[in-house]
Inverse folding.
């Protein structure tokens, strides 16, 4: 076992949390290794924010244990928060003071020195945020920038970011994702929740998918994608007629769509491609396009299967 596995940044074991009769977390297990970017993926209401709040002892779980940077958030919350940068999903700030006052207050609260002050200014410039503005005069996106700066400015060992790009324009979203990558390169661990799948795919080393308070899949981002079927589009030359039964007879090849003139086929390849290529070689092929599904397609296909299974289960019980 390597050091990252034996001393993880976050270790969650059988964590449960309910709000009245609603069970928000149903015994989840998670290990986040030190120095990785970990994406926590799920739709709104899946339990992402509840899990992060438990990690910081902002709320107490009903059962289970949490270790953050080797410490128990419940018995030593100040020590945990000292080494963490946190961006909440719903950021609330004093509306009547300036951005600079907010950042200075948070810096002093942390005991941050001059380096923290300099870093905050650099991040504000990078995110194009006027620190002299009052909070009440800021747009939702600019308020989000304040929270991002507050999370990053003291160069924490662990960043816990809850929907970090919410409300930001596309250019600033890319800047924030670059900041995440830079933090990882400097040795920090980044745990961020999101329902924006493209950004998770762009920066995360590993991903956990949560659904209705349960972890349904965990894995390296690359392996989640590589284990899925290929998509293929084949375009034939004019006056070429493909006998589709030849395709349909192949194992692991699904004929997804045929154009009205028969020249274009869309296929899903969930097996060896060798036999398919041999069949296509007998025809005048104009072009072939292939590609793996992206993380969004993996996510949606998984949720679609679960919904279909749940629907069939309900019908069976009627």
């Amino acid at each position: 076992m390597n050091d990252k596995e034996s001393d993880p940044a976050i270790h969650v074991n059988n964590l449960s949390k309910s709000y009245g009769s609603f069970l928000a977390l149903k015994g989840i297990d998670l290990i986040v290794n030190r120095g990785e970017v970990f994406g926590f993926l799920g739709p709104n209401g899946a339990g992402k924010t509840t899990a992060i709040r438990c990690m910081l002892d902002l709320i107490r779980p009903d059962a289970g244990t949490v270790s953050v940077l080797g410490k128990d958030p419940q018995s030593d919350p100040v020590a945990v928060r000292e080494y963490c940068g946190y961006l909440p999903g719903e950021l609330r700030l004093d509306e009547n003071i300036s951005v600079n006052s907010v950042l200075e207050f948070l810096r002093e609260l942390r005991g941050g020195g001059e380096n923290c002050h300099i870093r905050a200014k650099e991040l504000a410039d990078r995110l194009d945020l006027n620190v002299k503005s009052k909070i009440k005069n800021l747009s939702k996106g600019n308020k989000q920038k304040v929270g991002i700066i507050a999370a990053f400015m003291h160069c924490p060992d662990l960043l816990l970011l809850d929907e970090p790009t919410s409300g930001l324009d596309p250019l600033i979203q890319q800047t924030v994702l670059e900041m995440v990558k830079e933090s990882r390169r400097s040795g920090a661990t980044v745990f961020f929740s999101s329902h924006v799948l493209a950004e998770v795919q762009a920066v995360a080393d590993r991903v956990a998918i949560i659904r209705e308070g349960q972890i349904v899949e965990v894995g390296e981002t690359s392996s989640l994608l590589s284990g899925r079927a290929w998509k293929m589009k084949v375009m034939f030359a004019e006056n070429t007629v493909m006998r589709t039964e030849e395709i349909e007879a192949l194992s692991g090849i699904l004929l997804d769509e045929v154009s009205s003139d028969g020249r274009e086929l869309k296929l899903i390849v969930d097996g060896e491609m060798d036999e398919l290529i041999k069949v296509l070689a007998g025809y005048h092929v104009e072009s072939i396009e292939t590609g793996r599904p992206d993380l969004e397609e993996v996510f949606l296909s998984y949720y679609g299967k679960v919904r279909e299974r749940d629907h069939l289960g309900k019908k069976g019980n009627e």
Q: What stands out?
A: Residues 3-220 form a domain with the Rossmann fold fold (CATH 3.40.50.300).
